[in-house]
Specification:
The protein is of the alpha/beta class. It has helices spanning about 15-25, 50-65, 90-115, 130, 140-160, 175-180, 185-190, 200-210, and strands at about 5, 30-35, 45, 70-75, 120-125, 165-170, 225. About 45% of the residues lie in helices and about 15% in strands. It is globular. This is 3-oxoacyl-[acyl-carrier-protein] reductase.
């Protein structure tokens, strides 16, 4: 398991747990981050996925230190939650630029070496809100839903080269981002989850790890929910 894995937004939450899981399994792991440092034992590089130049510099650093990226986990994201009539275009555009276009930038750059190797795994971390929506998250839901169309289009483009493109759709997950929610918001969300609890970042990471492995080689264009039943397969 010495393939090279790049995980964006790997300094905390789901990205950090994913990086740790791959590292524990013996992969050569690189993560991008903006503020929170990556786990010990992985190669970290500062990167803003909203900037083409920053993405190119990050890939150059990873390739120089570890080799060509064979598995890319597009996890970096931001939120700018607000009801539609209070949401300005800047907040809408910023979320799409990071969560959707940023994932495109990373996938496009990663696919170059994958095409040469005729092997690769593209894994997009979406959200259950992409499948059924959420009040106050029109920007976030639109961006995360876009990842599904992106992954399925890439499946048709790249599938013949032994490159898969899949989506993991987490539900409510216990991270620093969700820790800041008011108790009323937290309870509102949990009432919609049949499992009655939040996911751990490690449970989401396990889905990404599975999709990266040889056993998942015939799975592509799929949306894998890790949501305690909240999405019910939407």
């Amino acid at each position: 398991m010495n393939r090279v894995v790049l995980i964006t937004g790997g300094g905390k939450g789901i990205g950090r747990a994913t990086a740790q899981l791959f590292a524990d399994d013996g992969y050569k792991v690189a993560v991008t981050y903006r503020e929170s440092p990556p786990p010990a034992g992985v190669f970290g590089v500062r990167c803003d996925v909203a900037d083409d130049g920053s993405v190119e510099e990050a890939f150059a650093a990873v390739e120089a230190n570890l080799g060509p990226v064979e598995i890319a986990v597009m996890n970096a994201g931001v939120t700018r939650d607000e009801l539609l009539l209070r949401m300005d275009e800047k907040d809408f555009s910023e979320v799409l630029n990071v969560n959707l276009t940023g994932a495109f930038r990373v996938a496009e750059r990663a696919s170059r070496s994958m095409l040469r190797a005729r092997w690769g795994r593209l894994i997009f971390i979406s959200s259950v809100v992409a499948l059924y929506g959420e009040a106050g998250q029109a920007n976030h839901a639109a961006a995360k839903a876009g990842l599904v169309g992106l992954a399925r289009s890439l499946t048709r483009e790249l599938g013949a080269r032994n490159i898969t493109a899949n989506v993991v759709a987490p539900g409510f997950t216990a991270t620093d981002m969700t820790a800041g929610l008011a108790d009323e918001q937290r309870q509102h969300i949990l009432r919609q989850v049949p499992a009655g609890r939040a996911a751990s970042p490690e449970e989401v990471a396990a889905a990404a790890r599975f999709l990266a492995g040889d056993a998942a080689g015939y799975i592509s264009g799929a949306v894998v929910p890790v949501d305690g039943g909240a999405g019910m397969g939407h």
